[in-house]
UniProtKB/TrEMBL annotation:
InterPro entries: Formyl_transf_N (IPR002376), Formyl_transf_N_sf (IPR036477), GART (IPR004607). Keywords: Purine biosynthesis, Transferase. GO terms for cellular component: cytosol. This is Phosphoribosylglycinamide formyltransferase. It comes from Tardibacter chloracetimidivorans.
Length: 203
C-alpha cells in the first residue's frame, strides 16, 4: 500500500466529526492517518477524545497574536512541524486568512451542515426548516477564501420532516456527516480526485 497521507484536523469544540475521521483511519487500507488534532480552544473536549485515541494534539489560543494572519501563520507552522499533508476542518470556528488557505490549496477540506450552495454560514438547520425545504443535508468541499464556497466533493441528504425541530434535524444530518466525511477525506488522500473549475470528479 502507498504511504498514507498525514492529516491535521482542526477543531474548536467536541470534535464529533474528528472522532469519525480518527476511527476511520484505524481501518485496514485507509489512505490517511491522523497526525495531529489542533484546537484554538485549550479545553476543547475533542482534544481529550483525540488524546484518548492516541492521536497527538496541540492547542493555541487565537487571541493576542496581532491578527488573524499572524495566528494562522503559527497554526501553519504547527501543522508542518507535524508533517501534515492534508488539513480537515471539523467544527473549527475560525475564519481563515487568505495566506493560510492559499498555502493549503487543494489539500484542505471542510464539512458544512447544509446542501451547499444553500445556507452558507451558521444556523443552517433552522434556516432550512424556515425555508420549507423538503431535503437538507451536509456537504464536504475544498476550502477556498470565500466562506463555504469551494468545489464540492460530496453531499448527503436527509428528508425534512413536518414536525422537525432544528435539533432533531441536526441530529439526523450529523449521522450522515460522520459517514460522509471519512469517505471524502479518503478520496482526497488517495489522489483520485481531480478538480475541473467548480467540479470535483472521481469521488
Amino acid at each position: 500500500m502507498a504511504e498514507r497521507k498525514r492529516v491535521g484536523i482542526l477543531i474548536s469544540g467536541r470534535g464529533s466529526n474528528m472522532s469519525a475521521l480518527v476511527a476511520a483511519a484505524q481501518a485496514p487500507g485507509c489512505p490517511y492517518e491522523v497526525a495531529l488534532v489542533f484546537s484554538n480552544v485549550a479545553d476543547a473536549p475533542g482534544l481529550a477524545i483525540a488524546e484518548a485515541a492516541g492521536v497527538p494534539t496541540a492547542s493555541l489560543d487565537h487571541r493576542g497574536h496581532g491578527g488573524r494572519a499572524l495566528f494562522d501563520a503559527k497554526v501553519d507552522a504547527i501543522l508542518r512541524d507535524a508533517g501534515c499533508d492534508l488539513v480537515a476542518l471539523a467544527g473549527y470556528m475560525r475564519l481563515l486568512s487568505d495566506d493560510f488557505v492559499a498555502a493549503w490549496e487543494g489539500r484542505m477540506i471542510n464539512i458544512h451542515p447544509s446542501l451547499l450552495p444553500s445556507f452558507k454560514g451558521v444556523d443552517t438547520h433552522a434556516r432550512a426548516i424556515a425555508a420549507g425545504c423538503r431535503l437538507h443535508g451536509c456537504t464536504v468541499h475544498l476550502v477556498t477564501p470565500e466562506l463555504d464556497s469551494g468545489p464540492i466533493i460530496a453531499q448527503a441528504a436527509v428528508p425534512v420532516m413536518d414536525d422537525d425541530t432544528p435539533d432533531a434535524l441536526a441530529a439526523r444530518v450529523l449521522v450522515e456527516e460522520h459517514r460522509l466525511y471519512p469517505q471524502a477525506l479518503a478520496a482526497l488522500a488517495s489522489g483520485r480526485l481531480r478538480v475541473e473549475g467548480q467540479r470535483v470528479l472521481g469521488f
